[in-house]
User: Which sequence fits this backbone?
């Protein structure tokens, strides 16, 4: 597991804990993170929603320097699947 994935799992666990839904974050060239009712973990499983971004964008979202909606609107973050789940998670990250 990459350092970026490990750090992201730690930060997401502190911010979100468990989540009513399932979201997979794909960090380009690094790996995947699952967020669901079981918590946050490095994994590549099926999810209601998949969000994909590069490491810099993902780190900015976690640090609060990048707004997830702005990242989506500018093409730095792609979302596949249930947009309602993505928005719910975005609210939990704020």
Assistant:
């Amino acid at each position: 597991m990459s350092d970026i994935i490990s750090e992201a799992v730690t930060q997401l666990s502190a911010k979100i804990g468990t989540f009513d839904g399932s979201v997979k974050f794909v960090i380009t060239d690094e790996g995947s993170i699952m967020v669901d009712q079981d918590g946050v973990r490095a994994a590549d499983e099926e999810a209601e929603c998949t969000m994909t971004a590069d490491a810099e964008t993902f780190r900015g979202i976690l640090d609060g320097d990048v707004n997830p909606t702005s990242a989506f609107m500018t093409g730095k973050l792609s979302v596949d699947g249930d947009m309602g789940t993505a928005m719910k998670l975005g609210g939990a990250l704020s």
